[in-house]
């Protein structure tokens, strides 16, 4: 049974979430603040975290960073904040999606976190002349050094590398990396592709590996 950790300081919201999630056959733990959330996550190892950003003891983004220090558990941010900067900050810290009604997306988040069938038989280390991507270890190496990537940068890199040589549409990238409710925020892609090129390409202004197909999408070439 899938275990969900709900983190919110409003008892009415927690009660509603717990009732709805249990009705959908999820096991549920609840925390009212960030410290409690981090302790519960370490003790109970949830399959999904539903997290409010407005917590009494720390910002929810700090909780995301704390979790991402040791786990890749899917994190769905449940928040009333609507600023795109705040959304980007949460996603960049390692959140998997930013939603107001998480139930329909819990299964999708768990599915994305599970290894794909037969993934062990796929190529897991991809080498170019300038850098190496190890999909199993979730790291990139350039000139003998690990490249520091944010969770969002890694997710974008992973999708492109797993589809090596194929055009990946803007919409597909947005939905796979940022979540099902995204599809038109192409500015996100421009920003993060520029960051990947800066960190991995020998000449970021003339990329050899991360190719833009104007108006269509992006392609990774060895």
TrEMBL record:
UniProt GO molecular function: cis-regulatory region sequence-specific DNA binding; identical protein binding; phosphorelay response regulator activity
Annotated GO biological process: positive regulation of DNA-templated transcription
DNA-binding region location: 123-222
Keywords: Cytoplasm, DNA-binding, Phosphoprotein, Transcription, Transcription regulation, Two-component regulatory system
UniProt cross-references to InterPro entries, sorted A to Z: CheY-like_superfamily, OmpR/PhoB-type_DNA-bd, Sig_transdc_resp-reg_receiver, WalR-like, WH-like_DNA-bd_sf
Modified residues (4-aspartylphosphate): 52
PROSITE patterns: OMPR_PHOB (PS51755), RESPONSE_REGULATORY (PS50110)
Gene Ontology CC terms, in alphabetical order: cytosol; protein-DNA complex
A Pfam family this chain is assigned to: Response_reg
Response regulatory domain span: 3-116
Domain OmpR/PhoB-type, first and last residues per copy: 123-222
Localization per Swiss-Prot or TrEMBL: Cytoplasm
Protein task: Member of the two-component regulatory system KdpD/KdpE involved in the regulation of the kdp operon. Upon phosphorylation by KdpD, functions as a transcription regulator by direct binding to promoter regions of target genes to positively regulate their expression.
The protein's name in its UniProt record: Transcriptional regulatory protein KdpE
